[in-house]
Specification:
Layout lengths: L3 H7 L12 E6 L4 E6 H8 L12 H4 L5 H13 L5 H8 L4 H8 L28 E3 L3 E3 L4 E3 L4 E2 L3 E2 L6 E6 L2 E6 L3 E3 L2
Antiparallel strand pairs: 1-2, 3-6, 3-10, 4-5, 7-8, 8-9
């Protein structure tokens, strides 16, 4: 669904807060699925600094929408507002199908990182997880193994070093090695 007329057949008000003023399509990334929202909701979605937590109490109703895009935005906004207390109660009641949950989580906003957590990131700043595959972006001499790991070599099923955010472990040429994260990029 991609044009305003089709969205207006589905709803004549903002699908999040039910306002009927300044309505326009909003694309829920990464899918090309659109919902109809007002300019106030749009402004607060795009600029988290301008968020008014009381405005989003409307999610108590809209989170039950049958439209997946509306549920995704409701879930994301509730996660942004978790520090307010009341959104956690709504999140506890909310149920999303597995594919919709994956869609909602794609932005990573729901991940809470405390200041003591160790986050492994590749050369591009992408978050690395246990089991990911990475590609070397530079030729590296492997100490103790007498070979050079060539640029473009894959490491599959990596393991994160739990006490050092700059190190990952994996196999290259059949050898278990430790690699510095700034020399790899996450592979799709």
């Amino acid at each position: 669904m991609s044009n305003l007329r089709e969205l207006q057949k589905r709803s004549t008000v903002c699908e999040l807060c039910t306002s009927d003023e300044a309505l326009h399509p909003y694309t829920v990334v990464p899918k090309v699925d659109q919902i109809l929202i007002c300019s106030q909701c749009h402004g607060q979605i795009e600029d988290p600094e301008s968020m008014d937590p009381n405005h989003w109490r409307c999610l108590n109703d809209s989170m039950w929408s049958e439209v997946d895009g509306v549920k995704v935005i409701a879930w994301r906004m509730l996660h942004r507002l978790k520090s307010e207390g009341w959104p956690q109660d709504l999140l506890d009641m909310m149920y999303l199908e597995e594919d919709v949950q994956t869609w909602a989580e794609v932005t990573g906003e729901h991940i809470v990182e405390d200041e003591n957590s160790i986050i492994h990131k590749d050369a591009n700043g992408s978050r690395l997880s246990h089991g990911d595959s990475v590609v070397l972006i530079k030729d590296l001499d492997v100490k103790g193994a007498n070979f050079t790991a060539k640029r473009g070599a894959f490491m599959r099923n990596i393991t994160l070093v739990h006490d050092n955010a700059e190190h990952i472990e994996g196999k290259i040429n059949g050898q278990q090695v430790v690699i510095v994260t700034k020399f790899v990029k996450k592979s799709n």
